[in-house]
Amino acid sequence: MDVTVLVFNGVTSREVLAPLTAIAEVVEPVVRWVSRRPGVVHGFEPLQRFEAGSGVDEVVATDLLIVPGGLGSVRMMEDPEVTAWLAATTAVARYVLSVSTGSLLLAAAGLLADRDASGHWLATGVLEAAGAHPSERAVTWQGNIVTTSGPVAAAEVAATLPDRVIYGAPG
After folding, report:
1. Nearest to 83 by CA among 61, 105, 101
2. Which residue from 9, 29, 100, 122 lies 20 to 30 Å from 75 (Cα-Cα)?
């Protein structure tokens, strides 16, 4: 299963690691790390280094795009290169999974306009301003995009995705 993960300075590491760990319990994922530019980025909670081998100038089809949140997500949602990459990659991804404030990045890319979306409870106003309909649910599916309130909900969804990708089974 091919997994692409957007990482950036200030990403919440557990929002990256929880869904990847859940997937790895079912299948061995091939993970592609993407950042604004290739190189090392730093996450927190816990402190973690991620080595991004690709930048946002390269769009590649993937089974799953993971869009985590964190303190650095505000800078990313204001970056037109990042939001354009998210829109282009979502168009060629089988599934897109946002975690917590990762939904703000999807909203900034125009992917949640007039759609229900879960996310961090403090992000409700920003989601509304971007044209999304904030949901109090922990998980919200809208087509191939699933938004989650945090890493626990994301891990539960991620554990079902290998069956969906490999067998077309409902999760």
Report:
1. 105
2. 29
CA distance 43 to 153: 20
What radius of gyration do the chain's Cα atoms show? 14
d(CA 118, CA 98): 9
Please report whether residue 171 resides in a domain: no
11: its two tokens = 């990403």
Q: Which one has a higher pLDDT value, 64 or 169?
A: 64
pLDDT in tens, 68-114: 999 999 899 999 999 999 999 999 999 999 999 999 999 999 999 99
Is 168 within the bounds of a domain? no
Helices of type H across 97-171: 102-108, 124-129, 151-167
CATH code, domain with 157: 3.40.50.880
In a domain, 143, yes or no: yes
